[in-house]
TrEMBL record:
Residues 1-18 form the signal peptide. This is DUF3168 domain-containing protein. It comes from the Bacteria. Pfam families: Tail_completion_gp17 (PF11367). It comes from Kordiimonas pumila. Keywords: Signal.
Length: 136
C-alpha cells in the first residue's frame, strides 16, 4: 500500500505543475521523463524515496522526491527563477492525493549544479520535498 502512496503523490504533484500557467510560461514542458531532444528549459520529476510511517490504524508514508529543472542559459539565474516558481506553485497548491490525506509537504533542500555536455554547459536545479501521507 505504501508504494501506491508514492505513485498517487507523484500524480498530484505532476498535475499541479503541468496545470500551472505561470510555470508553463517559463518552461517548454513538465515531464515525468523528458524525451530525447527536449528543448530547454524544462522541468522533470526526479528520484523518490519512501519510508513506511504507519499508525496503529492507518497506513502511512514519509516520501521525499525531487523536481529537476534544466536550463541552457549561461548563468544560474534562469534555473533559480524556475526553482522559485515550482516552489511557489507547490506551496500554494491544494494537492489532492487520491486515496490519501496529505498531512504535510515542505521544501527540504535546493541545489544548483553546473554540468557539461557536448554542446557546452547546462544548469540543473534540484528541489527536494518531504511529504507525509496517510491512507484515507
Amino acid at each position: 500500500m505504501t508504494a501506491m502512496a508514492c505513485f498517487r503523490l507523484q500524480e498530484a504533484v505532476f498535475a499541479a505543475l503541468a496545470a500551472a500557467t505561470s510555470l508553463s510560461a517559463l518552461v517548454t514542458g513538465v515531464y515525468d521523463e523528458a524525451p530525447t531532444g527536449a528543448s530547454y528549459p524544462y522541468a522533470a520529476m526526479g528520484g523518490t524515496n519512501l519510508q513506511p510511517n504507519d499508525l496503529k490504524d492507518r497506513d502511512g508514508a514519509s516520501i521525499s522526491f525531487d523536481i529537476i529543472l534544466w536550463s541552457k542559459e549561461p548563468s544560474q539565474l534562469e534555473v533559480k527563477e524556475l526553482m522559485a516558481e515550482v516552489d511557489r506553485v507547490l506551496d500554494k497548491a491544494a494537492l489532492g492525493v487520491v486515496g490519501y490525506s496529505l498531512v504535510s509537504l515542505r521544501l527540504q533542500s535546493a541545489a544548483v549544479t553546473r554540468q557539461w555536455n557536448e554542446d557546452g554547459s547546462l544548469y540543473r536545479g534540484r528541489l527536494t520535498y518531504a511529504a507525509l501521507v496517510y491512507a484515507s
